[in-house]
Structures are given as C-alpha cells and as structure tokens.
Protein: Transcriptional regulator
Amino acid sequence: MKTDFDTDRYRTILRKIRTRPQIEVLLESLLEVPDSELEALGLVIEKFRKKK
Structure:
C-alpha cells in the first residue's frame, strides 16, 4: 500500500512530466528499454550529469 508521501511524490513527478512534453516522449521510449539495459542507461545519465 502506498503512503501519502508516495502519492504526493508521484503526483509531483506527473505534474513535472505534463509541463514538459519532451520528457513524456522520452519516458515512453524508456519503457521500451529492457531491464537488462536500464543499469547501463543509468550510468550514461549519471556521466551526463557530472559533465554539466
């Protein structure tokens, strides 16, 4: 069962997604990525963040 904190967190995330259509498209693409490749993708994203 989800707590109020979880519910609020998900609502906040969904609100952010709705205000940025490009994020919604990206998330739809991520849903197609196999679980086995998600960790590698996470590492790429982490490296990208560090470059900023």
